[in-house]
Amino acid sequence: MGERLQKILSQAGVASRRAAEALIREGRVTLNNEVVVKLGTVADPLRDEIRLDGKLVTREETILYLMLNKPAGYVTTMSDPQGRPIVTDLLVGVKHRVYPVGRLDYDSEGLLLFTNDGTMAHRLMHPSYQVPRTYRVKLRGVIADKDLRAIADGLLLDDGPFKPLNMTVEKVNRKSTWLLITIHEGRSRIIRRVFEKFNYFVLRLIRIRFGRLELGDLPVGRYRYLKKAELLMPQPCNE
């Protein structure tokens, strides 16, 4: 039975369905040695030869979910033209291809999910599902109460409005402030950009919770396997 190419690519763990559509439009996908650029093209993954950038795409027989405690100094990509360490270097012993769910900046740390379940990855990342993420943030200096109130009330960034779900001061030192902040979106460098707008420099950014998953005492640079039940398939927000 045939299925749409973007669905096959997603189920193979290559990318989310939306990202797979972009790959097709870019002419990077071939079906039986013919370049496909038309969305909606149907193929049989058991009979047809499907390739991405010349590499054979096959379904993953084993669906995996992993949680990594990402150290700073790693990029959340599958390769890096600058030769920097990549997060998959830390997945020693994982025999199946898995892909990061979203990103953490090069300098950011903490909970990073991996899977080859494209549907789950899409639901965890898509804004309509509003999956919360909680971060510990260390700022240089002591943040003013008025700035905390302004951020908590919401503000406008270059790429749209921002308002945290929750934000609390965890600890104040003479030269730094630790905060806990929960958001439900994954726009690029969004937390860093929020504090930069108020002239605060983020010294450390550590994701400690994603949805119902908590980083806990997982050592830095180590990973563990997850059960699908730990993630719980999120449902879209009706708001």
Q: In DSSP terms, counting alpha (H) and pi (I) runs of 4 or more, how many helices?
A: 6
From the spread of the alpha carbons, the general shape counts as elongated
Bin the helical content: 10-25%
What is the count of β-strands? 17
**Rg, Å, rounded:** 20 Å
What letter string, H or E per element, gives the SSE order? EHHEEEEEEEEHEHEEEEHEEEH
The class by helix and strand makeup works out as alpha+beta
Share of residues in strands = 25-35%
Mean pLDDT: 90
Distance between the termini: 37 Å
Poorly predicted residue ranges: none
Largest sheet: 9 strands, mixed
In words, what does this structure look like?
This protein is α+β, with helices and mostly antiparallel strands. It is 19% helix and 31% strand. It is built from six helices and 17 strands. A hairpin with a 2-residue loop joins strand 2 and strand 3 (34-36). The model has no long low-confidence stretch (mean pLDDT 90).
Structural topology:
Elements: E1 3-4, H1 5-11, H2 17-25, E2 29-31, E3 34-36, E4 42-43, E5 50-52, E6 55-56, E7 65-70, E8 99-100, E9 109-115, H3 118-125, E10 133-140, H4 145-153, E11 155-157, E12 160-162, E13 166-172, E14 176-183, H5 190-197, E15 202-210, E16 213-214, E17 223-225, H6 228-231
Helix pairs in contact: 1-2
A few lines on this structure:
The chain is α+β, with helices and mostly antiparallel strands and 239 residues long.
